[in-house]
């Protein structure tokens, strides 16, 4: 499913975001703290109504669809995932079936499959609140997968994950064959796993393109205020960054 | 070849949970037995087989001896409506507590956190202290309490603002509850009638004394409709307890859902408080007791909570009648006295987690 953001504006935060993610591509959004990354995603998954501009799914303005119809096509991993009560892992993942009207047997199948895809099948009967941060994150990703979306919106999906699970989750996300829009903090992971990157700064997209076009020393200096060398990964050839360590002033 | 030992990690024990259908069936049986026992027990004790015989006769149009008219009157006119209303109030408060805790995502919320009951207490104390609505006779208290509850509900809704976010809702309800309580207390202390304070306090702590058949139908109908409605919203409540943003991504119109839940729970609370006063503790702790037993899934919680709440309040009311007979104790005193140790025991038995650790 094709995702297009046109002149997306949120008063004081976003000043006209234009962004296009064609069907089944993985797009990363990077930028310094406070640049509007999460706000952009919140407009896409409809937690926030923009003050101007539109989000189009396959050319259709999402605000013209019912919230439930959007949820059939679009799943999101948000930053506010706070669980108040002691749900089991299976119960949490099963909530991903909420927008769908399928049989309970089918729902159970999808839930079990989603859990095994994030390497969490063994956690199925555990209490969600008894899990470690990394286990929780994987379960929440499983919940998004259980929604069987055509568009997956991820706000820092690698949060709390150890390096092996970071790589596994991003590889999984790539293998799904759905459109992905992800905010990523780790620029090297973003470069290695995204088809295209969009750099946000002060509520504007300042650069869009393939990782090697976007992650240049100039952009890193101008936007992130760091000095970095760009090298090629010895096996995959994707650009990777080596940062100059700053002296404390 | 050397075998490498694989590290064995034993997962923490999974809490064992009884099947919900079996539990509901068992609780239904307990409820039926509790109703019979609740009718039999009181200052005048009536043998269980007589209770069953009288109830059967009343329901099927059978006959009883003329000599038994006295006990029959106690069973049918006094005890049965009271026991049934206890069941309705217990069921209603438990279910409202479950819904409100999920709706405002707060394990400490109860049916009274929205300020509705404090509003009702203004109406009730006005009746007790000033003789308002005297023309309505015995219905004056319930009527005034219900009207004041409706007014409080409207006020909380308006002050919270149109999006009813959980924190604003709880803060507004709590703040206004202090205001309503202040008005109620002022009425009590300004009253020239000495016994007004005691009467008002008794009402505030909840009582089913003097209940007749007339107060039952409305309370039962509103509670039944509310329970049915909330059970259809069980999955929504699950999603809402994961946070508004997540609920939105799961396809729920959060604001609309919360408005509907607010309306239903506030109306239920208003009706229940009007017939029984503000019985505390049930709506706070029964939801947790049920979650301890069946887990957090609201489809299970909302199936078990009304039955558990009904049984619980029947026995609370029995204790209220018996412990200081012929005086009656307020229900709120007993719910706390029974509920606190029960809750502590259950909480120690299992690792129960409220909202993180």
From TrEMBL, chain A:
This protein's record includes keyword ATP-binding: yes
Listed SMART domains: AAA (SM00382)
Name this polypeptide is given: Iron complex transport system ATP-binding protein
PROSITE patterns: ABC_TRANSPORTER_1, ABC_TRANSPORTER_2
GO molecular function, one term: ATP binding
Gene3D superfamilies assigned to the protein according to its UniProt record, in alphabetical order: P-loop containing nucleotide triphosphate hydrolases (3.40.50.300)
Pfam hit, one: ABC_tran
ABC transporter domain: residues covered: 3-227
UniProt keyword annotations, A-Z: ATP-binding, Nucleotide-binding, Transport
Tagged with keyword Transport: yes
Lineage of origin: Bacteria, Bacillati, Actinomycetota, Actinomycetes, Pseudonocardiales
Automatic annotation (TrEMBL), chain B:
Bilayer topology annotation: Multi-pass membrane protein
Transmembrane segments: 20-44, 83-100, 112-133, 138-160, 166-189, 201-230, 260-289, 301-323, 329-347
The keyword Cell membrane is annotated on this UniProt entry: yes
Cell compartment(s), UniProt: Cell membrane
Signal peptide feature range: none
Source organism, top-level taxon: Bacteria
Alphabetical UniProt keywords: Cell membrane, Membrane, Transmembrane, Transmembrane helix, Transport
Pfam families hit by this protein: FecCD
A molecular function (GO) term: transmembrane transporter activity
Chief localization: membrane
Listed GO CC annotations: plasma membrane
GO biological process terms, semicolon-separated: siderophore-iron import into cell
Family of the protein in this entry: Belongs to the binding-protein-dependent transport system permease family. FecCD subfamily.
Protein name: Iron complex transport system permease protein
UniProt source species: Saccharothrix carnea
């Amino acid at each position: 499913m094709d995702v297009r953001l046109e002149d997306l504006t949120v008063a004081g935060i976003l000043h006209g975001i234009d962004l296009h993610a064609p069907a089944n591509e993985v797009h990363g959004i990077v930028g310094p703290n406070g640049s509007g990354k999460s706000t952009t995603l919140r407009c896409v998954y409809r937690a926030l109504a923009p003050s101007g501009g539109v989000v189009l799914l396959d050319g259709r303005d999402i605000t013209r669809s019912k919230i439930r119809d959007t949820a059939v096509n679009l799943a999101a991993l948000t930053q506010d995932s706070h669980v108040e009560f002691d749900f089991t892992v299976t119960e949490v993942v099963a909530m991903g079936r909420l927008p769908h009207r399928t049989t309970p047997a089918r729902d159970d199948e999808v839930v079990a499959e989603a859990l095994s895809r994030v390497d969490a099948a063994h956690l199925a009967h555990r209490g969600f609140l008894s899990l470690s941060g990394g286990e929780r994150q994987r379960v929440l990703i499983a919940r998004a997968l259980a929604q069987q979306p055509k568009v997956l919106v991820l706000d820092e999906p690698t949060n709390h994950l150890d390096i092996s699970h970071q790589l596994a989750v991003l590889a999984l996300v790539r293998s799904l064959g759905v459109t992905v829009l992800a905010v990523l903090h780790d620029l090297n992971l973003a470069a290695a796993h995204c088809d295209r990157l969009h750099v946000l700064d002060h509520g504007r997209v300042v650069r869009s393109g393939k990782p090697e076009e976007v992650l240049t020393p100039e952009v890193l200096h101008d936007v992130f205020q760091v000095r970095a060398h760009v090298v090629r990964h010895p096996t995959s050839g994707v650009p990777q960054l080596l940062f100059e360590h700053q002296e404390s002033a | 070849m050397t075998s490498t030992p694989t590290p064995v990690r034993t997962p923490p024990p999974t809490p064992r949970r009884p099947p919900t259908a079996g539990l509901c069936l068992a609780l239904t049986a307990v409820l039926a037995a509790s109703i019979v026992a609740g009718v039999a027990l009181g200052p005048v004790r009536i043998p269980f087989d007589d209770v069953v015989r009288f109830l059967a006769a009343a329901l099927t149009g059978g006959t009883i001896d003329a000599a038994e008219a006295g006990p029959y009157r106690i069973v049918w006119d006094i005890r049965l409506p009271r026991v049934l209303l206890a069941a309705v109030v217990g069921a209603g408060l438990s279910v409202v507590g479950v819904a409100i805790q999920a709706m405002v995502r707060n394990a400490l919320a109860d049916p009274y956190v929205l300020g509705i009951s404090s509003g009702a207490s203004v109406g009730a104390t006005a009746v007790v202290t000033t003789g308002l609505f005297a023309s309505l006779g015995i219905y004056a208290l319930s009527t005034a309490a219900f009207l004041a509850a409706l007014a409080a509900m409207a006020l909380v809704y308006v002050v919270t603002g149109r999006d009813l976010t959980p924190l604003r809702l709880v803060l507004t309800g709590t703040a206004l509850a202090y205001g309503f309580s202040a008005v109620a207390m002022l009425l009590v202390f300004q009253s020239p009638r000495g016994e007004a304070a005691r009467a008002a306090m008794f009402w505030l702590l909840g009582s089913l004394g003097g209940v007749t058949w007339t107060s039952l139908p409305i309370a039962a109908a509103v509670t039944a409709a509310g329970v049915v409605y909330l059970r259809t919203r069980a999955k929504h409540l699950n999603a809402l307890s994961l946070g508004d943003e997540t609920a939105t991504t799961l396809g729920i119109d959060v604001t609309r859902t919360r408005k509907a839940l607010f309306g239903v729970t506030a109306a239920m609370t208003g009706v229940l408080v009007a017939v029984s006063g503000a019985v505390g503790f049930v709506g706070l702790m029964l939801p947790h007791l049920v979650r301890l037993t069946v887990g957090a899934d609201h489809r299970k919680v909302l199936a078990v909570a009304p039955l558990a709440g009904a049984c619980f309040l029947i026995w609370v009311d029995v204790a209220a009648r018996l412990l200081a007979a012929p005086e009656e104790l307020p229900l709120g005193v007993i719910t706390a006295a029974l509920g606190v140790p029960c809750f502590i025991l259950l909480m120690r038995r299992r690792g129960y987690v409220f909202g993180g650790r």
